[in-house]
Predict the 3D structure of the following.
Amino acid sequence: MNVGNKIFLFFLSAFLFSQSYAGSTEDVFSNITLKTTHVRGNIYMLEGAGGFAGGNIGVSAGPDGLLLVDDQLGPMSKKIDAALNDISKGQLRFILNTHWHGDHSGNNAYFSKDATIISHTNTRKRLMTDQENFFGKSPASPKEAWPIITFEQAINIHFNNEEIQFIHHAHGHTDSDAVVYFPKSNVAHLGDHFFNGFFPFVDLDTGGNAFTLTHNIGEIIESLPEDTLVIPGHGELSDVNGLKNYYAMLTDTTQFVKQQAASGKTLDQIQLAGLPSKWAAWGGGFINEENWIKIIFNSLPKQQ
C-alpha cells in the first residue's frame, strides 16, 4: 500500500468514525463525487468531496488537448476520465506530478498509456523504489507509473498557448516537490506545498522540512502576480491573499516553536502549552496542533 492510500485511510477512518458509517472503503469511493471548477482561462480544478479522492487536480484544456497536474488516488481513475470528458473531448497528453505521494500520483500507471508523465528527478526516484515514512513502508510503483521526463531545477512546457512553468522547490513538503504556473491564465498549482486553511503534512522522512517549506512559500509569493489564483494540494481554491495567510501561519508557528525549543523546553512541554490561540482553527485537518508542533520541532537542526 503506497503512502497516498495510507493517507487516505487515515482521513477515511476519522471520517467513518465521525459519521458512524459502517460501509467499506469501496463504498466510500463509489460515493465520492468530483467537483469541477473553471478557475480561469484554460485552467480547471478537480476536487474530491471531503478531500477523500486525493490531492486537487489541475487541468489545462485547449486546442492542444489536455494536461493534468497530479492525478489523485487509483480508485478515482474512471471518475477523472468522466470529469475530463465533460471539460473537453481533447486528448490527454501530459501529466505533471508535483511530488511522489500516491494521493497525487496514484493514477500515473492508468493514464500513462495516453499521457507523458513529467516530474522532478526525485519524484521518479522515489516512485521507482520502496519508501518508508510516517505511514510505514510503501512499495515501489509499477514501471508504467514512472515519469519519463524529469528535470532538476525547472522545465517549460509549451501547451495550449501557454509557456507552462514547472519549478522545483527543494525540501519543503518532500524533496521532490515542484509547483506549476500557467502565465497566460495566471493560475498556479502548488501541490502539497499549500494546504489551504489547515496545518500541512511535511514528510520529514523523504526530505521535507517545515522551515524550508516556509522559506519556499515566501519565495513563491514573491514570484506570483498579486491577482494569481492558486490551486492548493488540499483545500479550496485560493488566491495570493490566501497564500499570504498560510505563510503568516507558517512563519509565526515555526518561529514560536523554534524560540520555545531554544529556551530549553522539550517537545512535550511545547505541545502541552500549545501554539498561539490565533492559529487554533488551523488544527482541524489531517494534521492537528500537536502533530504540527512535532513536525516543526523535528525540523529543527539536530544538536551535535
